[in-house]
Here is the input.
Amino acid sequence: MSAVRKAVVVGTLRKSQMKEQLVKGKRLDGRDLLQQRNLSIELGVIEKASGSARVRLGDTEIVAGAKVETGRPFPDTPDQGLLIVTAEVLPIASAYAEPGPPNEEAIELARVSDRGIRESGMLDFSKLMIKKGEHVYSVFVDVAVLNDDGGLFDAASYAIVSALSTATRPNTELAEDGSLIVSDDTSDLDVKTLPIATTFAKIHGKIVFDPNTEEQAMMEARLTLVTDSEGKFVAGQKGGSGVFTYDEMKELARISAERGIEIRKAIRDTIDNGSQKT
Amino acid sequence: MKTALLNADKIRLDGRKLDELRPVKIEVGVIKNADGSARIEFGKNKIMAAVYGPKEVHPKHLTKPDRAIVKCRYHMTPFSTDTRKNPSFSRREIEISKVIRQALEPAIILEDYPRSSIEVYMEVLQSDGGSRCAALSAASVALADAGINMRDLVAGCAAGKIGGEIVLDIDDTEDKEGEADMPTGIMPSLGLVTLFQLDGNLSASEFQKTFDLAVNGCMKVYQIQREALMNKYFGQSEPMQESNE
Amino acid sequence: MSAVKRKYVVPGDLVAEGEFRPIGHVTQDGNKFLSTRVGMAEVGREGVRVIPLSGPYIPRIDDLVIGQVVDYSAFAWEVDINSPFFGVLPAQSVFGREYSPANESLSSRFAIGDHLTCKIMSFDRTRDPLVTVSGPGLGKVDEGEIVKISPTKVPRLIGKKGLMIKSIEAATNTRLAIGQNGIVVTIGPSAGVEMVRRAIRLIEEEAHLADLGSKVEALFTEAESGTN
Here is the structure.
């Protein structure tokens, strides 16, 4: 049995190498400071889900599955459908992941992902109402991290956007007694916009885009910004125990919007090509 | 049907101007048992923050040999919200506890207190939007009251967008009905951001404007934090200036 | 004359800008010195420092402290010295090198709840501070009342060359033992002890102000005229 490792340890030699490279504008895996790892997306990987996607971002691998079911609305929003987002770093995902209830990292991942969907207006919740106060569609989005090499906020966002964009909902009919008849036919879920997350890390005062696990272990602070299809900022989250200057915040907003456009286009293309599901 | 959050003169529902902060009151040293404490009233928010420590770490294996660890708990009492809040610790509270911890850690000189833990408890007695920024501001004052070495205070304030306008310090209604909320925390003397979150919908130029306004609001909160500490420790007195050495 | 410039500060406040020697409770940001505490900043020829008005007691070697036994094992007592760190009093330092847990019980000497006057022997941040009760004036506190003061304000309670403590003792007919950790043992008639309590409260509240000595004097005079 191997020793229990509590946290990622970056060797001293690695650390000084990383520092040297960053000064030169390079990273240990050969990337430029603002270069993203290879991104690949597969759609419809889970047949039983209403929509699903597997995202690989470098060595990080995430599956997001959306299930659209019918249910009762929350009492305070009787005319709106529901959205519930969860995230779990599965015990298989790294030597540091542990079984059990989600820790604060996983909860943060789920909540930031939730804000991206909700605040962008990606789903029109009023259209997900079937009968006010009685029947609505419930959209469950569950994110499973299969291999964790950092960049979870971004990879999860791409997986969720892809899963929801290709998701369907069951058609329904109201019976005369007010009960709901759920049909086997489905319709598209109809998404309005694609919220795309971009995460930056500050290491030795340099800012890198799309940090991997090793870089995350070295980072002083992290900033995630989410933009929608119109380039509007819909969610944000600073993480880590370090700081950003006011100028860095504004510069990162600019870069985030730029990168959002490129990544959104790549995802859009995948969705358009892949909609003839195999 | 949404309530209009602004009238024709761009005055908000509670009578505030666009860039106006709600009334903020901070009182220092309000919990006798704690090593440091503060009460903040931020609009209708009423929040108590208490600091215990530095003290021994429990459980022991969390001990860091060269610095202190910070434990943070942001918690809402069941009666703090319009409809009763489930008393158990929610995912929202876990997340907010984490971002507040990470907003305080850069300010605390952790290396000065090896092998110890600094515990920060924030209890929201009444919430009114912007409670995380208010709790953060109170916690930082409580840490200063506890006499823990800090690089700077941490001041928190949100800015956002309602009725198409960028406004300072979003309250509960504005948060629910408005277009965007950007809770921000800074170290005011050092000019550094330690807390940042965003939800809503902002164009690139609105993002910049909202951020500037949030920083501005933090500076106003900072003045109130300073005054509260000065008042507790020095009252109206002037420092003695005669040379006695 | 070396004028010392003073001002009140909170964490992050600018204490001084320029070429100075940092003495305590300041951080350096370029040539700026910022306070790390609530307190009184002093800028003088010697350097810059902040005298904090609150904060925990951090042990220093050779400090005299007064602590309370809170626990013991077979080999040492654990002493609460009003600090983030517990003091450790090894059994061998009390019973001698021949000490064996088989023959002696620690509680026979010092029980939980006992107050001890002790000295910090070693403390290097890697382990809890080691304390001793061997030496003149050290050992178990047999009588008196415990009064607390913020550890940061102990120097003002002692006063320059011990003047404050002497004047309090004389005026109240008591004897004071002051631990650097803010624990004070007061021995004397109960009226005197009550006066000490009031004097300490006054010092606690006005430690940042001048003329503390005459204010404490005034407190005693007022009390005397009040009772007579």
